[in-house]
Amino acid sequence: MRVKTSNGKGDISQIPEPTLRRLPGYLSFFKALKINNVEFVSSGQIAANFKMDSTLVTKDLAYTGIKGRTKIGYNVNQLIETIIQFLDFNSQEKAFLFGVGNLGRALIKYHGLKSYGLHIVAAFDVDTNVVNSTLNDAKIYPIDEFRDLSRKLDVRLGIITTPDAKAQETADLMVAWGIKAIWNFTPQSIKVPDNIIVENTSIYSDLAVILNRLNNS
Amino acid sequence: MRVKTSNGKGDISQIPEPTLRRLPGYLSFFKALKINNVEFVSSGQIAANFKMDSTLVTKDLAYTGIKGRTKIGYNVNQLIETIIQFLDFNSQEKAFLFGVGNLGRALIKYHGLKSYGLHIVAAFDVDTNVVNSTLNDAKIYPIDEFRDLSRKLDVRLGIITTPDAKAQETADLMVAWGIKAIWNFTPQSIKVPDNIIVENTSIYSDLAVILNRLNNS
DNA sequence: AATATGTTGTTAATAAATTAACATCTTGGT
DNA sequence: ACCAAGATGTTAATTTATTAACAACATATT
Q: pLDDT at position A217, please?
């Protein structure tokens, strides 16, 4: 196992998914520290904030390549810069969104996403009432225009916020027109070719955990 | 509720969180099968749909207590009923929501949540423009009225969709007035007493995974 | 300048989750 | 009625993630 240096170059960065998932949380914490003019923070302090083991923090941060200083800790500004860089949160990755319902609309208007590397450049829907309107800087088009827009703009990421029943056909359309990664907000599992990246976000899973903890403890 | 006794010690083995998180996905799949009039489904078919190991499916379903039949598979209707029961998705757990921004509004209007056991009965915000309006059947109140409403209604669950900076003080307020579980949609880690259940939902974690897979593979 | 201290970073051990192997059982066909 | 097939359910092995132990080291203090 040679997870030695993660210089960001090459594809050897086999970072564990749990670590990857924790990094945005750290980032949020560090940003808050910066606002409070805190300059340095130790792995112990970070661990205490998240109620976790300090060595786990150390390991997680080591993946980003950042170095702490003995007796001092980590430089907060450097942490923020390094994590943003590592996670490509300054890349402004362009995305198409399909299905401008409640959730879709919220995601488009949620400008927080922009500072986390995502830029929804256009949306698509079948509802003629919303088509041709504009939310933030994203215009809403009829589905038919996806093909042409897909050629004009170079978009790799597609977001599915359609009704559950439309998830699969939306995914098929995306794959057909060159989308490389799909962010699926429906609970439906979608079938795509192996080279397509799929990330499922299901708030129902979180809800299941909460209800379980509430009722069985 | 009793699940399974691990050994003679009499303590019950809790369901693993990964299993818990997969159950809503299964449920969604089974509901789709029912619509297509499929009556029985085997663990192999389920596993194929989710591209996972079939024994894992078997194990997951075993936790709910449901029994499959050799050569036949699992009864779809029974699966749906059992999982809904197991996850308390028919409990209509009442919830307060704090912060009627883009995301908060989407959650309130998202009637899908209702069929998954959650009923947002009221919301709170500081913005006088939204206060006193009604979304779905949830009225929006000023924060001040939380205390009285908390006494009148018996609500155990609180949802935080405020700006990040307000997350902690909102959590403090919730704890002070008897909320037992907090669903935190901000990336901020909140500090609460040990007996309070906290579930963090961070779409930034999912975003981090997607961007990483897109850029490093 | 020397020392004590607190903090990183590495290696080892434990715990948890997934995958594999196998045994069991029930149904359908001959 | 018997046998074969196919699926569940259990036990073992592997992989992965987390926690613990410890070594190295730079800084502040005396």
A: 73
pLDDT at position A81: 96
Q: Which residue stretches of A139-181 are H helix? A: 146-152, 167-176
Give strand ranges (E) for B48-191.
Answer: 74-75, 93-98, 118-125, 134-135, 138-142, 157-160, 181-184
- B121 plus B59 within the same structural domain: no
Could you report the per-residue pLDDT of A29-59, keeping only the tens digit for each?
999 999 999 999 999 999 999 999 999 999 9
Based on the domain organization, do B102 and B186 belong to the same domain?
A: yes
Q: Do A24 and B200 touch (CB under 8 A)?
A: no
pLDDT at B13: 57
Q: What share of chain B is helix, strand, coil (3-state, %, to 5)?
A: 45, 20, 35
pLDDT band at B4 (very low <50, low <70, confident <90, very high): very low
Domain end point (choices A86, A106, A136): A86
Ramachandran category for residue B105: left, alpha or beta (phi over 0 → left; psi -120 to 50 → alpha): alpha
Determine the average pLDDT of the residues in B156-167.
Answer: 96
Judge: A211–B105 Cβ closer than 8 Å, yes or no. Answer: no
Residues at the strand C interface (Cβ < 7 Å)? A 42-44, 54-55, 58-59, 61-62, 67-74; B 16-19, 52-53, 55-56, 59, 69-72
| Average pLDDT of span B6-15 | 46
What average pLDDT does the structure give for chain B?
A: 91
Helices (H), A53-97: 54-63, 76-86
Residue B215 lies in a domain: no
A163/A133 same-domain check: yes
In a domain, B9, yes or no: no
Which domain, by its residues, includes B38? 17-86
